[in-house]
Amino acid sequence: MRHRRRFYHRLRLRGQIPVSLSGHTTVLNGGKPVRPYSSPLRAEAALTSRCNLRCRYCHFFGSAGEKKRELDTAEWLGIFDELGAMKVMELTLTGGEVLLREDLPELIAGIRRNNMRFLLLSNGFAFEEHHAAMLKGSGRCVYVQISIDGPEAANDLARGSGTYARAVRAMKLVLRYGIPLTVRMTVGRHNFRLLPETARLMIEENNVRALTCNPAFHFTGKEDESDLPWIMSRREFLTALSDALATARNHPERFSLRGTMFGRAAAQWSHLRRCRRENRPPAAPSPCASNCLAQLEKLYIGADGSVTPCNHLPDAVIGQAGRDRLADLWENAPILRQMRAPGKPLLQEFPLCRGCGYAPWCVPTARCLNSGGRASFVCLKLHEEEAPDFDFEEMKWKQNAVLK
Q1: Structure pTM?
Q2: pLDDT tens, 126-135?
Q3: How far apart are alpha carbons 48 and 98 in whole angstroms?
Q4: Pick from 178, 310, 321, 325: most CB atoms within 10 A?
Q5: What ranges do the domains of the chain cover?
Q6: Cα separation of 97 and 305, whole Å?
């Protein structure tokens, strides 16, 4: 992750990442006007909606993101040609479960022909040695991400019997072939107290060099609520957040919260409390009324070719890959232009935000969460109201806290 950030930063300094010359959109970034890239830096390709697991907390199944139709090999290769022509640098291969695509070697060859690098996200259950050899031989794999949710009992409770052993086997194959590995832990009600133990297990016993985590949460695109029993309460979230921050301090080189909901919550809460304490001027307008910048740097292509700004906005379809030119969609899609337009944060759209003392400085985490009435997931005001026995300065429970 760090080498990619440095790489992009050097390109920006040298002016080698092209920016829009049309001037139709200006956004605010840290108070400074900038132009959006003339093409996305990266894209996500959901090669399939099929999956060999049914994780109990999964937001994907039963959502608008789950597709019945699946693009064939030729269609995906054509899309990769388009992305290559747009100078997209990096492609994330996701699903469903990517390894269920029997044509995966052909698809990766197409990515390689277009001089793109790729990340592969997998549950690891179907990962075999020939996959590791193929990924290593491509010379274009940035890293493989394997999902493990804690020690075996907790992992298998949510992900299915035998999934831990298969994921560890996949992890060891990736490491044996010298492919960079990231292990991602999804934190829910079943494992929110197990972050320190999981870090020790992965880092000390399995020599994992990159570990991260994100909370399970319910997206507005999901049609049922089967995942809700697995989603943490606010107090459980605070316990997990405190442990995650402590784990990051204990393993600074291997455990990262950058880009995760835990990391964003901690940073935003600290900022909001400081702004209110110091009575700072209201924050400047920001793009998308959100601290998510998906609309400025990436596209998501679903298994059926539907194009959206992000996989968490499955209903915001801006076009169809293979039918519509991706470059045209990136420049001219009305939804993207609306999301990129500068303007005041749309806090008044969300009933939970009206009258909040943090409103002058707060930027909603993401509309995909807020618009469903679950802005509360990382809402500082509601967490403070529900947990007066939590120290939001130190990010840990007070001594008199009573935890279940």
Answers
A1: 0.86
A2: 999 999 999 9
A3: 6
A4: 321
A5: 40-397
A6: 16
